[in-house]
Amino acid sequence: VFRRFAVEPAKMVSFYGEVLGLKPLPSIKLAGGEMIQFGVGTTQVKLQYTAGAGEYKTGPVKEVTGLRVFTFFYPDEAAVSARFVQHGYPAPSFSQGRGGKRMAMVLDPANQWVELVVVPGASQETYDSIDLGMTVSDLEKSRAFYREFVGLDELPPVDDPVLGVKRYPYRHGTTTVTLWSFGKGLAANTRSAGIQYVVSDVEAVDVKAKAQNVKIDTPLGNFSAGLRTIWLSDPDGVTNYFAQMIRRAPAPSTATR
Q1: pLDDT for 173-210, tens place per residue?
Q2: 25 and 13 in contact (C-beta within 8 Å)?
Q3: What is the secondary structure of 118-148 as a DSSP string?
Q4: Cys-Cys link to 28, which of 35, 44, 111, 139 (CB 3.0-4.6 A)?
Q5: Sign of torsion over alpha carbons 17, 20, 72, 241
Q6: Which helix (H) or strand (E) element contains residue 208?
Q7: If you ran DSSP here, which 8-state letter would residue 201 be given?
């Protein structure tokens, strides 16, 4: 998953690493800057400075479509609250949420939402999980996209007493994409965050996208010597980026008899 931002990069690094407690990974040098990386289980959270990101829509989850919420899981409410205070942020305001769990919504330095969920005594798999919350304009179209096109496993819907809607979760490994809707006609944020997938056959994704009339943002091509990619849009315009690692052929032997 990736998030674009326009604030001082050190603030984002500190927030996601020191405050949220995500595992730092080596950054990637890009032509236009740097991709900052953190690990959450089998998922990576990637942060990229983008000057124009300051213009992306923010606001209440109910008022803007897009990938609105990153959810992380913790064993100890007091410990995560203490890290917020130690780094100059207000202590999160936890309350009872879905499933009786203690939850809090906070804003990151880029003014985008992060949800904190406290699950004491859970398995490590729970704390290695991430939930990507998406406000969509047409539930049935989005559900079909993530279930049938992307191929995520559909889980039973869950009532959300905080948002006042039903949540529709779709899982792959330790990552869950959760959809909810407040109807059509909302403002849209299609740029601040998106989802990346590592696949074994990106050519097949290209064929499937064309057959199902999925919008192609960036056509199939080589992103670098070792990466072949295609960038697609979900029904609300959120980026779904598929990448295949290209194995290099071994260099011919120069040995002589």
Answers
A1: 999 999 999 999 999 999 999 999 999 999 999 999 99
A2: no
A3: E-TT--HHHHT-EEEEEEES-HHHHHHIIII
A4: 35
A5: negative
A6: helix 202-211
A7: -
